Amino acid sequence: MPRKQGSIQSLWTWLAEYFVGEAPSFWIAMVPMLILSALLFTRSLTSNYIFDEQEALLANPYVNGTKLNFADAVRRDFWGLPPDRSVGSYRPLPNFVWRGVWDGQKALTHGVNWTLQRLEPIAIQARRPAHRPGWFSWPNLAGLLIGGPALAALMIQITRAKSRRNRWATAAAAVLVGSLVASGSLGWLFTLSGGAGVAALLLLLLPVIALPTAVVGGLGLFALAILPTQPHPPVMQPWLFHWLNVLFHAANGAVLVCVVHGITRRRGLAWLTGTIFVTSAVLTEAVSGVVGIADVMGGLGASLALLSLRLPMWAMPFTVFAAVVFGLFSKESALVCIPLIPFAAFVFAPLTHERRPLRWLRGTLAFTGAAGALVLYVYLRKLWFPAPMPEELRTPLPETANLLEHGMHWFRGWFHQAPLPRDPLNNPLVDAPNIKYQTAGALRVFFRGLVQVVFPRQLSGDYSAPQEPVPQHLFEVENVLGAAAFVLIPIIAIALAIRAWWIERRVFRLLCGSTGRSRKELDPNLARLRLPMLGMLGAVGLMWVVVAYFPHSNIPVLLPTVRAERFWYFPVIGSSLALAAGFTWLYESTRQRWHGALAVGICAAFLTFQAARARTHAFHYADDLAFWDATRKAVPRSAKAHLNYSVMWGARGRLDIRLHANKEALALAPSWPMAYIYLGDTLCRLHRPEEAWPYYQQGFEKAPGDPNLIALSLQCLWDEVALEDHRDELLTMSKKHPGSWLEYLVNDIFNHGEENNGVDPKYRPRGYNEGPRE
């Protein structure tokens, strides 16, 4: 009688069969990728709006407004602004997703309110105080002690589930519990739900036969425990929108698994590629931050375009077309697919279509599909969103310009978006003395980002001035290293592609000569084993890194931001291919001598470090204060980080801490008008308006056209009854800037201040966490 396997051995056997025993389909790959993505990037359930999430969701008149129809996303930019006020981000698909989720949340809330009226007596008895416990509180420790074994029990139940339905239900419960454990939210739920939360998790420890009852009962207990005691209006919370990114990121990882397996037929290599991509720590900003949805959806379009290369020749260009259209309407960065997808089709043709690779024809058809998508995107964008032409594109180039410069100028004019903002604080390269220093600074940023991809020792959500200044010299070390990487990586990629092409020709020549058969008659698997598939994968991956980063490099166009980690979402698709090929090559090279232990150890250390850094950085998204505190420590020379840190403390009533952080921001950026105004505002709110006035005065002189800063200052002076003390100075300054907002608001407050109780309310800056003004 065969001996029954133990739980650990059974789990190991099931894992081996799951990952190696069968070819990975999308849904097979999606489960572990989603678990991994959720464990690494899930934010706390109590997280609030961080950085530009307020502008993207709360202040977005399309997502959070009432005057725009659902279809109006195509006539608004990413921030809900019309063409004449846009900052150049036309991404309607993410807005459609946000609006759909928000409308669904509102409908669900109305349903909850209807149910609440019938369950109110029971809900009052189950209600617990909803405050968030500290990290080292007893609720959180209880969450770890109960959540950890519950997660392990779920994994064991997966191995024992006899039906696919039970296995999927258990996997869903594992994702839920794992996300709660990783984000530190179990303690909050226990505080909120008391014994109901403990009972729900303990139910998950029951045998798999009771799993459906455990899940339904547990969710019911949780819902009852956290049910409000009175009806309430729907509230837009960022957590659900953020978790969309977690789902899309996992989907991208699953698609990459399918792409690599379809090309190489090697399951371990495919799983390694997806794991490297999903655990990449430099992508934390794109996945944990709500506004990263454009990057993850655009990346999904690029991944699907790669997956399309496996299709028959007649279908491939149409699916490439559809995938690139999806990517472009998610984020304009997907235009990098136009050169990259044909290159991948050319290189991978012998692996995707062994009998008839037809490299040049497949590459041409892929280019036709991708280029057609770009033409359609530009045409529809200009039709739906007619943005004005930037001034520099209206001016013709001098006669001395070469053919490449003329071609680039024409393409930018044809592709043009709304004019991009040029703020030296966010992108100091705006003030570079010439194109050489601009390029040198951009190459330095490229090198630093490339290092972060491989070794993410320090991650940050902001890199504003003077953290990334204009280089003092053209040939600084990092500038030279960035230039070398920018040039050498594509050269290596081309060399690998040429070598693969040469080996392919030689292999088929030898096989056809030795067997006396034509290429169409050969066994595809016989030739595949001799093709340098790792070299092909490395060629596409390396080329992808540089080309995908180029639009974000500040070399062809100066962007509003000098550096952002979410810019690396597209390039990391390529780096994942290259790194997976590199680790596999190292394993095969050392397998005979050390049984591959060296490669396995290096790969395990790499993935562990990436996962640890990703999870650590995701913890910084616990709330806005934690985010800016971590940011100012990671990039201590970012004036914006210190200023926003001060604002977070000001919103919590700690004006003393705000004052100190304001002074640090001003010391770092002595020409920044906002630093002067905010320091003055802090002093004014401390009831020291006379000390605030010199800072207000300098801020007015530096930014007479900024209505928000001027209105903020004038309102505080009005509230402190200090406006009349500076009447003459304000009127004198306003006359120096005729037609400016300074002149208008100063005259308006002196003429109509009594009836408006200060500044006219329609000109006051939007309050913290305030919705859109329609």
Descriptive overview:
This protein is mainly α and 774 residues long. Among the domains are: 128-226, no CATH class; 671-763. Helix content is 67%, strand content 0%. The protein is built from 32 helices and no strands. The longest helix is centred in the middle third of the chain and has 39 residues, at 477-515. The model is unreliable at 125-130, 207-211, 213-219 and 221-230 (pLDDT under 50).
In total, how many beta strands? 0
Radius of gyration: 29 Å
Low-confidence stretches: 125-130, 207-211, 213-219, 221-230
Query: What's the average pLDDT?
Result: 84
Q: What is the approximate shape?
A: globular
Summarize the amount of helix as a percent range.
Answer: 55-70%
Tally of helical runs? 32
Q: Ends: how far apart? A: 76 Å
What's the story with the biggest beta sheet? none
By secondary-structure content and strand pairing, the structural class works out as mainly alpha
> Beta-strand percentage?
under 5%
Please describe the topology of this protein.
Layout: H1 7-21, H2 26-41, H3 53-58, H4 92-126, H5 138-160, H6 164-183, H7 186-193, H8 195-203, H9 211-226, H10 238-264, H11 267-279, H12 284-288, H13 293-307, H14 316-330, H15 337-352, H16 359-384, H17 391-394, H18 403-415, H19 435-454, H20 477-515, H21 524-528, H22 533-549, H23 569-594, H24 597-619, H25 624-634, H26 639-651, H27 655-668, H28 673-685, H29 689-702, H30 707-719, H31 727-736, H32 741-756
